[in-house]
Amino acid sequence: MSSEKRLRILVVEDEILIALELESLLQDLGHDVVGVATSSAEALALGQEVKPDLAFVDIHLADGPTGVDVARQLAARQGVTVLFMTANAKRIPEDFGGAWGVIAKPYTERGVREALSYVMAGKPREPQEERTVTFLPFGVTAREGSPQAS
Amino acid sequence: MLAHTHVPDMGQTQDPDASLKAAYRPLRVPVLMIAAHGPEYPIVFANAAFLRMSGCSGDEVLGQSWRSIVGEHAEPEALAALEASLKAGEGHDAEFLCRRSDGASLWGSLSVSPVRNEAGRVRLFIVTMTDIGATKQRERLLEEQLEQKKVLLQEVEHRVKNSLQMTASLVLLKARRLKSPEARKVLQEVAERVGALAAVHRLLHGSSDSGRFNIRDLAAELVGELILALPEGQVELSLDVQPIAVPASKAAALALLLNEAIGNAVKHAFPDGRQGRLTITIGRMESDLAITVEDDGVGLDHAPPPEGSFGKTLMTMLAHQLKGRLTWHDMEPGTRAQVVLPIGAEETRFE
């Protein structure tokens, strides 16, 4: 995948302020936010409808800690690349729920940039010496069977 | 049963342990004696206190293997360890879920002591037993309460981080809607300062010891974010930061101080695409912590813009709060800001 490509991104986040700001940031970085969902049902419906390349998924949604299930279904059934974006990374299951990585909240612009370039490269890079603590890629083994953004 | 053949026949020969048994019989502590004959190690004596605790009669106990006193849920490793001690003729302490004759179980703390004959051979083992059910229950209760507190703490951490995220988002959203570049810049700087505080929470809650944090991680995090303001390749960055543990109580002030010092250099030292070098050094200086941010940019005299002076005021206030000394040097070219903070030796060791 070329790094020039505009990604079609779904934001799954129940705090509307955070969702809106993230949307602005993603647009500034040259991507399209094709939907914002605040609950699991909304996220799955939007996933079907708008067919995003990538989804940023918070673990706590309007209907509870349902983000992990959303990630699993978006990844397995709808072929969406998923990144968690959460202040509660301890909730992420051992198999990572089919996600490619996690951006820790409060996120930074750098964390979001690194996550996007990781996804757009389509393959994991070598761990860096001074890796940001705001984005943590899960590595290739965790992603087997999970689709690539393409 | 094979074990019975080893039990001394008390009717025919005089029991060499008769006086020992007589001494233990009236004790209020449950006591057993076990013959030193493997593999069964049969019970050869049980005092009244033991029979009361186990709910058994003497006939049900005597001649049975020592294993008969522990329940079927006893951990195999613990049983094997006790058996190994019996084989070696050594003393042993262990806790077991024991079985009562009525099917109920109780937590018993067993203490096994070998008794030797004149030749030094182990003749038998004396086992004293204590009912620790009440202690175990208290332990379980405490564990449950601890678990609840952990969940609560995680929830609070989560809310703190989410609130900081919302604060930053709120400010940035407003900034994006402003026409005036000056006003936008001010709000972006506020979001940046909230971001520095947020970095502290990410690092504190990510580490195993949330009472302390590593200043190297904090510096790397803040520099990584602030350097984004400059085009790649314009400024060469040199980071020499020792992994020093800093108490959490100083984390927020230190993060803001670092943010201002580094941000000041990034924003004001290299105007109009000026190339240069930014060096950040953090290390021990005798019993103090020294933070140095040095650039070879335009220098002190090149009148920083008005909002830059707020950054400097903030630095002075924070250095004061941390009981440190802040100094500025004109390096011609460039500026060096140094903060020297007293941080005790016991606080700065980082494993």
Descriptive account of the structure:
The complex is a heterodimer of chains A (150) and B (351). With 150 residues, chain A is α/β, with parallel strands linked by helices. Chain A has one domain (8-143): Response regulator (Rossmann fold), CATH 3.40.50. Helices cover 31% and strands 19% of the residues of chain A. Chain A has helices at 16-28, 40-50, 67-76, 109-121; strands at residues 8-12, 32-37, 54-57, 81-86, 101-104, 135-137. A 6-stranded mixed beta sheet of chain A has the order 2-1-3-4-5-6, sandwiched between helices. Chain A is globular and about 30 Å long. Chain B is α+β, with helices and mostly antiparallel strands and 351 residues long. Chain B folds into 3 domains: 2-131, PAS domain (Beta-Lactamase), CATH 3.30.450; 140-210; 212-351, Histidine kinase-like ATPase, C-terminal domain (Heat Shock Protein 90). Helix content of chain B is 43%, strand content 24%. Chain B is built from 10 helices and 12 strands. Chain B has helices at residues 18-24, 48-54, 58-61, 76-88, 133-176, 181-206, 215-226, 251-268, 306-321, 345-348; strands at residues 31-35, 43-46, 92-99, 105-116, 122-131, 212-214, 235-241, 245-247, 276-285, 288-295, 325-330, 335-342. Chain B has a 5-stranded antiparallel beta sheet with strand order 2-1-5-4-3, with helices on both faces. In chain B, strand 4 and strand 5 (122-131) form a beta hairpin. In chain B, helix 6 packs across helix 8 and helix 8 runs antiparallel to helix 9 (306-321). Chain B is elongated and about 105 Å long. Mean pLDDT of chain B is 85; it is low at 1-7. Chains A and B meet through helix 1 and helix 4 of A and helix 5, helix 6 and helix 7 of B.
